[in-house]
Amino acid sequence: MSTQIEQQETETEADEETEPEVESPGDRRRAQRDERQAQEQAQREVEEETLDDEDTITLKVFRYDPEVEGKQEPRFDDFRVPFHKGMTILDALIYARDHYDSSLTFRHSCRQAVCGSDALFVNGRQRLGCKTQISELEDPVRIEPLPHQEVVKDLVVDMEHFYDQMEAVEPYFDADETPDDKLEEQRQTRENREKVKMSTRCIWCGACMSSCNIAAGDNEYLGPAAINKAYRFAMDEREGENRKQERLRIIEQEHGVWRCQTQFSCTEVCPKDIPLTEHIQELKREAVKNNLKFW
Amino acid sequence: MYEHDVIVVGAGGAGLRAAIAADEEGADVALVTKLHPVRSHTGAAEGGINAALQEGDSWDLHAYDTMKGSDYLGDAPAIDTFAKDAPEEVIQLEHWGMPFSREDDGRVSQRPFGGLSYPRTTYAGAETGHHLLHTMYEQAVKRGIEVYDEWYVTQLAVTDHDDPEDRVCHGCVAYDIKSGEIQGFRANNGVILATGGLGQAFDHTTNAVANTGDGCAMAYRAGVPMEDMEMIQFHPTTLPSTGVLISEGVRGEGGILYNDDEERFMFEHGYANNEGELASRDVVARAELTEVNEGRGVEDEYVDLDMRHLGEERILDRLENILHLAEDFEGVDGLEEPMPVKPGQHYAMGGVETDENGETCIDGLYAAGETACVSLHGANRLGGNALPELLVFGARAGHHAAGKDMKTAEIQTGPSAKSEPGDVEPPVEPGAIDASSGDVAADGAAVEPKAVLESTVEQERQRVETLIESDGINHAEVRADVQETMTDNVNVFRTEEGLEKALRDLRAARKEYENVAVEDPSRTYNTDLIHTIETRNILDVAEAITLGALAREEFRGAHWRAEHQERKDEEWIKHTMLAWNEGQPELYYKPVILEGDEETYEPKVRSY
Amino acid sequence: MAQHYSSFDRGGRRWLFQRLTAVFLIGVLAFHFMLLHFVNHAADITFLGTQARMSQVSYFATMWLFLVTATFHGVNGVYNALVNQGLTGSQKNAVKYMLGIAGLLLVVQGTRVSLAMTTLV
Amino acid sequence: MSQSYNRGTVEDFGRWREFTAGMWAWIFHKFTGWVLVGYLFTHIAVLSTSVGVDPASAQAGTDLYTSTLSGLESLLIVRFLEVGLLAVAVFHILNGIRLLMVDLGVGLESQDKSFYASLVLTGAIVVASVPTFLGGKLL
Ligand SMILES: Cc1cc2nc3c(=O)[nH]c(=O)nc-3n(C[C@H](O)[C@H](O)[C@H](O)COP(=O)(O)OP(=O)(O)OC[C@H]3O[C@@H](n4cnc5c(N)ncnc54)[C@H](O)[C@@H]3O)c2cc1C
Ligand code: HEM
Ligand code: SF4
Ligand code: F3S
Ligand code: FES
User: Fold this and answer.
1) What are the tens digits of pLDDT across the range B100-116?
2) Which GO cellular component term is one of those annotated (chain C) (predicted)?
3) CATH number where A245 lies
């Protein structure tokens, strides 16, 4: 149980004892709330007693808030959450937040691995909260914000740098020329679509970047996700040769593909199973081939 | 204070398209969004985008299908505009690099979809929405469009005139989630609401946690009428614990639904003797719930969708992603065991009343996407029609707001377009608990843009201050109450009794909400605060849905009423409209326009 | 954004040379080890034996190439490793020149040594 | 640009658990590479004793080069160091081959297996050559 809630409860109770006479609407509300909380607390205790270990799971969650006293020093809070089949890390976090501590902070939205908001560091590995079944993990489950990014609060990290890197590769389709007719599409072979298919799946979750040692050491390294983005366009035959040259120029900068030391951890953690290392390596070869022309 | 020509609230498909359109017109446009654009729920769409692209197909066939699908509650001018603009918009996406699935000759593939008379659904694998969203965000990056991401818009800055149609929208107020800063956003030309769906009014939905109907609620309180709010689409196959969508493809390939007694209930209990599992979405959803209500649900909650008999090879070939979904989100191996499914809220056909150019009755306020109701989908949306809607009406709103000359809209907006006063007798008073409590966007005597904005900012600062400073209950309880009663009573089955109960529960929840406070004192990334404000919006939207549902005494499209089992064309080919009316919601009806420029639609029986 | 990647140093060639030298080294290093530890036991190495081997043109050439490629491969490898650790600016340049000079000295000294071992010149 | 937020021991603790095959391979390759360069420099230094050897002493086997080498070889510690060098070289070669394959995009799916294979093979080769290295006369 999070120790923090209990503290706060006792504090508010103390407040009330000092001013019992005047019954303002606020007091009434507070009284009601306390009553309800007491009930809930009791109920929760009953629930917890009846829950044997098989049915609960312990979360150890990283907590930090630069503004709130007691949270300025990073710490871990424990939450015991009832377990049910099919429960994901995200479900457990939501439960802990809605039942125990409403200040528990994490990003999430789609609950189906498409929005990329909830990449977390769970039991020593980058994972998407909503895509990770608790039953696959060891108890207690330790949940931290993504490593190598500044922590804003609790499990929320600053993604700005990641976005900057993504945008540094000019991540937009920019064909040398498009058909004049507004109803005429550009042709693309099935093979070519297959080639870029995996690379287009990226959901910008940042798990890969966070797992890469090189990116950790070199802030300017474009990182696997951005390089994969560049791959997605460089390999798209619809763009044309000129644009491809420009794209190669971007990725073969010093902090581009050459930084990658083929550690594969990006590929391993990517929730969308994008073969990142393979794409990076292919771009290295592409860049070398391209340079050979000028020798 | 920030200032731009056009402010787009929300950066899903609709918002991005609008911003790009405004940018094309040379306007200085900014996107203000509570999620980073690529996190928007447009990314979740799987199926596809409808547009008449091929030789044998034409826009009027698409329009006809859409009108029929809407069960004759769609407005012809909206539908025609939509079907005409869609092909160009889809090809535009292709020119922007969207990785569509392709034919052997290199052209964009199209596939058949429910309710379409021609295979006109373009798609990009089973992740069409993801690609659409990312392609458009990339184009926004290319154009250097300014994005205020993780800024939560809390209120519109609207002038104070008695009649909503005299009001002008000068911008909005937003809260920077990361720093807690509250700022006014002045829009010189217009504000476009593109905040997406409202699925969080229900506890079981395919929508994202962020789909809380903020845009609807803000526009509603600012004086824009809500149209056809009762029209909510429920999808029959969603995973029970998360609401993740299991695509219709499983049933299309031959998946079978069983109840707890292992009966193939679609046939054995006579819900659809011909089509069985492949009957339309609403029929299947109702059948499933009947089974559960009659005690034949598995674990009293869901039914089983079995595809094991299709064989591993076929499943891996055509339904591989379904295996992943079931495994990742439900912990079930679809090759070994049946998958649990139940109906879930999926889409809101109704919303902020707009015309074909995206304009609302308030000058300078636009809406597009799922938030809006041009009345394209009427009583039922066809699969694959929402994504092109984002493009078509997003673009139109963007162009119009940026000052492009456009054909005058045929659809009339605003309470004055009312033709018939409404008659609904809610068991309890709906609307604001205390109409003078600052719920109305237009308050104070301000009409001058700067003053309007400043007073709205002040109001929002106060609101946030009060929420954080005071003691009270946590919003999560209120939200859970709302979601629960909505799912119990305003779900697939609607009875008068249930709807009335829902209204009473919602009233109680509103009273509870008076007591909410934010426990987290931090100004840094305070999601507790954001969710608390969202819950307020959910309340308003839920109530509007329920009021509309109580008023509409017929069975049309997605709206089913126990006491009224048939479509009543004489009486009910009209939109239910709800005006906030300074906290005392007022119902009225607006006629449906069945005559288009080129074609007039005759209501026919909707059968497939 | 893009501007801080406008370095002129495109690692492409060094990267390729690192691989090409590696390929060469696989063979030569294995051969070297075999010859001087297994065929001829290291303890039995004498100047005369060495001189005999080094006086065959092909062996001499191979060994000298071994020296050069290994030096390039090793020094370039160290340099890359340091740069990957985030070495920048003047520090990076200092390291670059130091490693360059060290590598050069090694090759020079190695060449002198090999010349001393051979009867070819 | 953002600096990593320092989570002290928490961060370090987590990082280690997160190390995967590819990362270990990287660490080992780095380490062995450095040892090899180090050795290359020492090796040339040792071989420098051959400069200025006069033919007579060479004939007699008393020249500086021959005696330095055999002198070194007579130390047990040097023999062990040589085994170490072998291990380092063999791993660097095998993993180097693995890396070259990766560069060519061959067999990326089994990159972890090939790393383990390099380790095992290195071990096997080293064990097999211990007799040769430690054997031979120690003088
Ligand atoms: C699972 C699923 C599958 C679907 N499949 C299909 C399909 O195959 N074909 C089809 O045509 N349609 C499909 N739909 C429907 C379609 O995807 C949606 O209707 C559409 O994507 C909605 O887009 P939008 O731009 O209106 O909203 P969204 O994409 O939801 O974007 C809303 C935006 O508003 C922002 N926002 C919200 N509130 C605020 C606020 N208060 N302040 C600031 N910003 C705010 C959010 O950050 C977000 O950027 C599907 C829907 C779902 C849920
Ligand atoms: C025998 C065959 C060899 C092969 C196949 C080989 C292969 C490789 C490869 C592919 C790399 C590049 C790793 C990367 O950049 O990701 C590398 C790095 C390196 N190699 Fe070799 N190498 C061999 C021999 C040698 C020798 C003889 C030396 C010593 C002189 C050496 C020293 C190094 C060093 C110092 C590095 C850099 C390590 C680092 O990244 O820190 N290698 N090797
Ligand atoms: S490449 Fe994979 S891990 Fe990296 S951001 Fe994209 S989806 Fe996430
Ligand atoms: S983890 Fe890093 S080193 Fe390369 S293979 Fe992935 S980018
Ligand atoms: S919540 Fe969207 S990816 Fe997990």
Assistant:
1) 999 999 999 998 887 88
2) membrane
3) 1.10.1060.10
